[in-house]
């Protein structure tokens, strides 16, 4: 794709015409190209594209994402992982923490049991709270 194509595509998905893509607009673009993406995968991609964490994607961020950019730092990758598992509220409930621990292979094989994860969660959170 050339610069004109990217700009035209960006503007086509900028439904409100503010010069940025919000999550809903970017979600539509990403699903158009890969309709099998899960909500968690969409959130991870969003975090990759929104480099400055402003909650909106500028054209330059969009171009960086399309053409590639340096790999994120370890801390940023863990934050992306947290956000991918946290659902729509940016907090982890017990079920989401268990899913995260399973995905990271922290549960089982003499590591942590699900009961251990639940104990950790309950130690950190009051009843009915999230991380």
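-> sequence recovered:
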């Amino acid at each position: 794709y050339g610069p004109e194509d990217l700009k035209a595509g960006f503007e086509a998905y900028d439904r409100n015409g503010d010069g940025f893509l919000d999550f809903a607009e970017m979600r539509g673009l990403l699903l158009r190209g890969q309709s099998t993406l899960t909500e968690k995968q969409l959130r991870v991609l969003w975090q990759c594209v929104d480099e400055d964490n402003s909650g909106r994607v500028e054209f330059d961020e969009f171009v960086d994402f399309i053409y590639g950019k340096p790999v994120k730092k370890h801390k940023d990758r863990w934050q992306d992982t947290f956000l991918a598992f946290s659902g729509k509220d940016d907090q982890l409930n017990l079920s989401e923490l268990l899913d995260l621990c399973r995905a990271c292979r922290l549960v089982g094989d003499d590591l942590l049991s699900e009961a251990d994860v639940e104990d950790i969660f309950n130690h950190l959170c009051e009843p009915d709270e999230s991380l």
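The chain has a mean pLDDT of 82.
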